[in-house]
Amino acid sequence: MYEHRSVRPLSTHRFARRLAIHFGLSQLLVVVSLLGGMLGYEKLEALPWRDAFENAAMLLGGMGPVNIPVTNGGKLFAGFYALYAGLVFLVVAAMLLTPMVHRIMHKLHWEENQ
Fold first, then answer.
1. 32-66: string of b/e by CB count within 10 Å (b at 16+)?
2. Helix 12-45 vs helix 49-60: angle between axes, to the nearest 10 degrees?
3. DSSP code, position 63
4. Domain encompassing residue 101
5. Which of 13, 66, 97, 105 has CA 20 to 30 A from 81's CA?
6. Each residue of 33-87: pLDDT tens digit?
7. pTM for the predicted model, two decimal places
């Protein structure tokens, strides 16, 4: 996916494009995760979409749910969604940092004579 250390580092324009693609994919993951959380809260806890959005967004943001689940299905969903949200946070952070870390490592290890 990324260029080998023997290849010249990407131009600034192509690197900015790579960053934009990574940002777009990470935002797509966040939006899909938010919609999935909203759907779960709407169906299992019978919350209106605004409350479902608030709960899903708060969990994805690491703050915790606003409305305490009352149904058994809602409690299970909230627990699993919280675990999932933690993983989404790590994946999004990795997706955003990977191009920058790769560029730094590439510039440090690039051998101009090859």
1. ebbeebbebbbebbebeeebbbbbbbbbbeeeebe
2. 130
3. S
4. 12-109
5. 97
6. 999 999 999 999 999 999 999 999 999 988 888 889 999 999 999 999 999 999 9
7. 0.85
